[in-house]
Every structure is written in structure tokens, then in C-alpha cells.
């Protein structure tokens, strides 16, 4: 078990952790208040280390080490960008569900205090966003999950959600999360709705995060201007809102204070939040609340339906 | 097929874990920039527009060690296409930028590679006559400061750059490193060479005290995302998108300055081979006019920024 994921000949051809569950024919999700969409925001509050150890599968600083430019750009997010983002969200009464490098609890307690004051959820995004899961042993992965639980407990939060640092999980990562009591994972991008995962032990659901509605891929990979980011967000929202009349959707906007907290982008974020808030029948939960609602009211129903499907499980 | 995963080795989670420390280096402490007043420009100025005019020479034999900075020759030898296009900036483009500033009676900081000065004395005559503030920007764009240099070699690079400028009677107080790259020793070596401020770290919007290990140096605020290099050169923004982004940033920063009572700085970093092109220069001119027309905005250079700084702590 321990070394399985390192061996090429043992590579499976799919994750084996969810069955194909097509949109057509699904039971309709029933959201609180009859909402047609759950809209949630996941601020990634991360720390990228000054001189991290080099993971042989992904270099933390491909340009040069140390990388003053990239380190300081990211540090900007914690010093300045976070304040801007928190202020715009609080002004509109939208809480965040924080994808947290849990060491931020140690380095920047002011940020954690502010999140707690605002009623935000904290979930784990690993220890640092420069300690990737690629190539870690399963025992090391488990240590990070346990560390996350203990660290969040120190600031009064339970570890319910998970996003692997830089999205570098092995297949076994999801098993470990379920075994350690994590309630939902954001590592999988296969659906617009929460979905039960089929694991060897324990229960876990995927909740829709987004690698598309995510300021960093938008700005850094797709080189979108601020105007294009705003237009894409509105288009995504409009379509999912319309579709949500048939079967409610979950829309996540994943953000990074060092990207969206820049002075040339922050007002576009505020404009998008105003746009969303101008719509009726939108539910504004945290990730934890999505998971609670789903387990309590939808999980058994959807699982029963999944059991009726033909094809590979 | 994706690459096989290599194990990280037994020390991956135990090698330097500096979570007990405030920052994971000794250069500066945490600071909440938005919480207190730091800048008072006087004269009704709330937003200091800091024009940074980059005069860069990219040697044709730039090695790419340890990385190729944005704009460097990178095609098969001899990359005369890139070399001469960058050189255009020092023959033609820079005069458009200088004229745009002169026509409006505005002062800028020239981010000057020392080898531009040593190679082009005629240009230097015109630059010195213009009276702009001069920031020492290393030797040239191939002379990257990085950890792989010996301390003696890096010290010699700084000394040579300052000696070339001294030959023109210039004794800059401020420094900018080519490619926004520093080694962990650069701040200390700059301090020892008599430099008292640097504009390489982009983690703040007001100046702060930076402990080099060899005395303090002032970290001047800089926002790399707002540079023409990053926005137009790397992210492929169209000119109108670049102009819109700068103006959005200016409006936001000005509003925050008025709200908080502390001044803000908008760095406007323009590069002679990018913004000095005939089809782009009107965009720069429009920006200067629009910024100059904003009530509460004023143009500043390094001496004014330092004089306006009420606290570095």
C-alpha cells in the first residue's frame, strides 16, 4: 500500500473514487429556502516559504531560489490584499471559507482573528503552499492532515474541508481524509454539485471548488484582463443561475488575496459581488454548511440513485 | 502520460519548518499597512504617482543564468531581433517618454542600468540635463543578483555599477535589481555600499524598514503587476486594458488614502522598449494627463517619498 502510487505499472486508468453520474436524470437537489444556487467564496490564504525544501516533482521557485519577486508578491496578499478582500466581502455580508496554509495561524494570527470575527470558516490547504503532496509517503500525508486538525483546533475551528496544497494529491489522499474525519474535499473538479465519493473506508463528499472561476488561473494562465475576469464570472453565474431552476448548482469563486487584492482588480471583485447580490434565491453558505446540508438532507437520496446506475462504479 | 512521481525523501517535512517565527526570514516584521498612517506628502497630495522610467540594456550574450529576465534575448544565436528591438528603446523610445514627461513638467525616477550609462554617454548627457531622479538598476539585464554568486562577485557587481554612475557625478541613494531578483545577501551588500533604499520587494504599498543584517535599508513600495513589463510584456494586455487597469488602481488607492488619512503610492513603471513605441506612447501620455487631473494626486520621486514617510516601523 505504502509505495503503490510511485509504481508506473500499478497506475489505474481513472480515480476509481466516483462513478459516472450524468446530469440528466439526477434527483433534484433541495437547497435551503428553495435556493437555485449556492454561491460561496474560497479565499486561499497561503504562505509560500522563503527557502522551502525542493520537491523533486514540482519546484517551489522555478525561476531562482530565493525568489524575491515571487515571495514578495505573495507576501503582499497577506499584508495588504487580504484586508481589501475581507472588507469588500464583509460590506456585502458574504462570508469566506478559507483555504488556509495552516501555518498562517502561527505566522499571522491577526489574519486568523479577523477571519474568526467575520464568522469565516477555516479549512486546510496543507501546511505551506510550498510543501506539495507529490511524492510524500502516506504516513507524511496523514501527519499533515492531523497537524491541520490540531492547528485549526487551537483557533476554535474544526477541520471539515480540504484542498491539497497546489492540488497535488495522490489517489490515497482522499482515503486518508475520510479516515481522519474530514467531511468534504475540493480536490476533484468533475461536477457542479456535491457528490459522494466511493472510498475503501469512511464517507467523503466532493464539493465544487473551481479551477476555472479562480483568479490565479484566470490572470496567470489565461492572461485575462480584469474586464475579462469580470465578464467570465458574470457569464458563469448567469448560466448556472438559469440552470439552477431545473436542478440547483454550487458556484465557487476561488480567490487569492495576492491576485484579487491588487488595487487594479479589487473593485471588479466588488462589482461582481454586487451583481450576485442583486439576484434572488441565492444561498450564501460556507463550505462546511454545504457539507452539513448535503449529508443531512441529500446524501442518502443521491447515494440511492447512484446505486441504480449502470456502468463502471 | 504524466511523469512518474519521485519520492520526496525522509526529510521533506522536517527540513526547515520555521513556523515559530513571525516571518520565515529575518528581514522585516509583520505590519498592518492599512491600520496606521505612514505617508504624508503635504500640499493636498494623497496619492503619489511614482513614474519609474526603465532604461535597460540586454547584452546579446545574456546567459540565462540563473534565468532569463523578461525581455532578454532568447532565440538562437545571434538573437539580433530581440537585441536590436530592446536597443531601440535606448535610441528612440526613451526620448518619447522623456518628452512626454517634459511636456507636462513632470519628474520621474530613471531606473538605470549602469552599462547604459557607460555605453551611451550621449544619452546620459540628455538624461542628466532632464534633471530626473536616478535609481541605480544594477549593471545590465544580464547581470542577475542571485544566490549562486559568491559574496565577493556580487559585491563587485554593485561596486562597479555605482562606480560607473559616480563617473557621471551621480550618487544614487536607491537601488533596483535587474529582473527583480536578489540573493539573500543583496540587501546587506547594498547597505554596505552606501545605498539606503531599494525597490525590489513588492509586498507593501508604503515604505518600510528592512533589516539587512548590516544595518537598515528602506524598502520602497513597488507593484510588479502594474508594470508595463508584466502587464503588456508578459500578460499580453492590450494598451486600453493597461490604461484602464492603471486608472482603476489609482482611483482605488486614492479613495483608500482619503479614507485612511495616510498617503498611498502608485508606482508607474514604464520601459523604453515597450511603452516608448510609437503606437503605445499616446497611452502613456493619456495616463499622465488623467492622473495629473485627479484631485489629490501628485507626481513624486524617491526623495519626496522618503521625505513623506512618517514611520518605517
From TrEMBL, chain B:
Domain of life, per lineage: Bacteria
Pfam family of the protein (one): Polysacc_deac_1
GO terms for biological process, alphabetical: carbohydrate metabolic process
InterPro entries in the record: Glyco_hydro/deAcase_b/a-brl, NODB_dom
Molecular functions per Gene Ontology: hydrolase activity, acting on carbon-nitrogen (but not peptide) bonds
NodB homology domain ranges (all copies): 87-197
Similarity section: Belongs to the polysaccharide deacetylase family.
Function description: Is involved in generating a small heat-stable compound (Nod), an acylated oligomer of N-acetylglucosamine, that stimulates mitosis in various plant protoplasts.
Protein known as: Chitooligosaccharide deacetylase
Organism: Mangrovicoccus algicola
Amino acid at each position: 500500500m505504502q509505495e503503490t502510487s510511485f509504481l508506473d505499472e500499478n497506475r489505474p486508468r481513472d480515480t476509481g473514487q466516483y462513478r459516472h453520474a450524468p446530469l440528466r436524470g439526477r434527483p433534484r437537489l433541495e437547497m435551503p429556502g428553495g435556493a437555485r444556487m449556492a454561491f460561496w467564496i474560497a479565499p486561499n490564504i497561503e504562505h509560500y516559504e522563503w527557502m522551502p525544501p525542493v520537491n523533486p516533482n514540482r519546484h517551489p521557485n522555478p525561476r531562482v531560489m530565493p525568489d524575491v519577486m515571487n515571495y514578495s508578491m505573495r507576501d503582499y496578499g497577506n499584508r495588504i490584499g487580504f484586508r481589501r478582500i475581507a472588507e469588500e466581502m464583509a460590506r456585502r455580508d458574504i462570508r469566506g471559507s478559507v483555504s488556509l496554509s495552516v501555518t498562517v495561524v502561527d505566522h499571522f494570527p491577526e489574519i486568523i482573528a479577523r477571519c474568526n470575527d467575520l464568522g469565516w470558516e477555516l479549512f486546510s490547504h496543507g501546511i505551506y503552499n510550498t510543501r506539495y503532496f507529490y511524492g510524500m509517503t502516506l504516513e507524511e500525508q496523514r501527519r499533515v492532515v492531523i497537524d491541520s486538525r490540531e492547528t485549526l483546533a487551537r483557533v476554535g475551528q474544526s477541520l471539515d474541508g480540504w484542498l491539497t496544497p497546489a492540488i497535488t494529491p495522490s489517489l490515497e489522499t482522499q482515503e486518508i481524509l475520510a479516515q481522519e474525519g474530514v467531511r468534504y474535499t475540493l480536490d476533484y473538479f468533475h461536477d457542479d454539485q456535491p457528490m459522494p465519493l466511493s472510498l475503501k473506508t469512511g464517507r467523503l463528499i466532493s464539493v465544487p471548488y473551481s479551477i476555472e472561476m479562480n483568479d490565479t488561473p484566470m490572470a496567470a494562465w489565461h492572461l485575462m484582463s480584469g474586464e475579462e475576469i469580470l465578464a467570465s464570472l458574470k457569464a458563469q453565474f448567469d448560466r448556472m443561475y438559469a440552470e439552477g431552476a431545473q436542478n440547483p448548482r454550487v458556484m465557487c469563486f476561488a480567490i487569492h488575496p495576492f491576485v484579487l487584492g491588487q488595487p487594479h482588480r479589487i473593485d471588479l471583485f466588488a462589482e461582481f459581488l454586487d451583481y450576485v447580490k442583486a439576484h434572488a434565491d441565492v444561498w450564501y453558505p460556507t463550505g462546511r454548511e454545504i457539507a452539513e446540508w448535503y449529508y443531512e438532507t441529500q446524501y442518502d437520496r443521491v447515494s440511492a440513485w447512484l446505486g441504480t446506475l449502470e456502468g463502471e462504479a | 502520460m504524466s511523469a512518474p512521481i519521485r519520492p520526496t525523501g525522509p526529510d521533506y517535512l522536517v527540513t526547515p519548518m520555521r513556523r515559530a517565527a513571525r516571518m520565515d526570514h529575518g528581514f522585516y516584521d509583520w505590519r498592518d499597512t492599512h491600520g496606521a498612517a505612514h505617508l504624508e506628502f503635504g500640499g493636498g497630495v494623497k496619492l503619489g504617482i511614482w513614474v519609474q522610467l526603465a532604461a535597460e540594456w540586454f547584452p546579446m550574450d545574456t546567459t540565462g543564468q540563473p534565468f532569463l529576465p523578461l525581455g532578454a534575448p532568447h532565440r538562437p544565436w545571434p538573437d539580433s531581433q530581440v537585441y536590436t528591438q530592446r536597443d531601440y528603446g535606448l535610441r528612440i523610445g526613451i526620448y518619447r517618454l522623456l518628452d512626454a514627461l517634459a511636456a507636462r513638467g513632470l519628474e520621474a525616477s530613471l531606473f538605470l542600468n549602469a552599462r547604459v550609462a557607460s555605453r551611451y554617454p550621449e544619452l546620459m548627457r540628455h538624461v542628466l540635463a532632464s534633471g530626473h531622479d536616478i535609481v541605480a538598476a544594477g549593471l545590465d539585464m544580464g547581470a542577475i543578483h542571485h544566490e549562486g554568486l559568491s559574496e565577493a562577485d556580487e559585491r563587485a557587481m554593485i561596486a562597479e555599477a555605482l562606480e560607473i554612475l559616480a563617473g557621471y557625478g551621480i550618487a544614487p541613494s536607491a537601488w533596483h535589481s535587474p529582473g527583480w531578483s536578489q540573493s539573500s545577501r543583496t540587501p546587506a551588500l547594498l547597505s554596505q555600499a552606501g545605498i539606503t533604499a531599494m525597490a525590489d520587494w513588492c509586498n507593501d504599498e508604503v515604505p518600510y524598514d528592512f533589516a539587512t543584517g548590516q544595518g537598515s535599508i528602506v524598502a520602497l513600495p513597488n507593484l510588479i503587476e502594474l508594470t508595463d513589463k508584466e502587464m503588456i510584456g508578459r500578460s499580453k494586455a492590450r494598451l486600453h486594458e493597461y490604461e484602464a487597469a492603471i486608472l482603476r488602481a489609482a482611483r482605488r488607492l486614492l479613495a483608500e488614502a482619503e479614507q485612511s488619512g495616510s498617503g498611498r503610492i502608485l508606482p508607474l513603471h514604464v520601459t523604453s522598449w515597450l511603452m516608448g513605441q510609437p503606437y503605445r506612447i499616446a497611452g502613456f501620455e493619456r495616463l499622465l494627463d488623467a492622473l495629473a487631473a485627479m484631485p489629490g494626486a501628485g507626481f513624486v520621486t524617491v526623495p519626496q517619498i522618503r521625505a513623506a514617510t512618517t514611520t518605517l516601523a
